[in-house]
Amino acid sequence: MEKFTGKVWVLGDDIDTDIIIPTEYLALKTVKDMAPYGFSPLRPELAGQIKAGDIIVAGKNFGCGSSREQAPEIIKELGIKCVIAKSFARIFFRNSINNGLLLIENNDLVNDIKEGDSIEVEVNNSISYSGKEYKIASLPENLVDIINAGGLVKAMRKLNGLD
Q1: Successive 10-residue mean pLDDT values, the chain, 163 residues
Q2: Which residue, 25, 104, 95, is CA-closest to 65?
Q3: Residue 42 buriedness (CB in 10 A; 0-12 / 13-18 / 19+)
Q4: Predicted TM-score of the model (pTM)
Q5: For the chain, which domains are there?
Q6: Cβ-based neighbours of 153, under 8 Å, separated by 6 or more
Q7: Which of 13, 60, 117, 133 has the most C-beta neighbours closer than 10 Å?
């Protein structure tokens, strides 16, 4: 399984899709154009501080609100490697998988972690932080394949020999 380490950004409960990308920026032409405005209602500086490979750790109900597909696309465009939260809104979870963004559910990490610290993630196994191991549930192999391919469309193109 894949292992990676990343710097953590800590967010709270109920981070909705309007916080991830406010409605007024959906009119911009591309996800790349929208990305600098990610999380702006909550923390206007955050999008500019995130670096490739960083990790978001949040509370419950991450991605609630509207089902806009741009929300996981913007998180991925910002370079976030994965989002770890107590729970995810169902449609956001599926949109994230379909766009190749890894989501991990864990109830305890957000209570222990400090923003700016680093964690190690072993996909479908555990999270290591400050000498403690947090077990995580495994995603089904077909979902891991979609994430590893970069999203559903890319996975299907690969599966059908088009790429």
Answers
A1: 93 97 96 98 97 98 93 97 97 95 96 97 96 94 92 91 87
A2: 95
A3: middle
A4: 0.94
A5: 3-159 (3.20.19.10)
A6: none
A7: 60
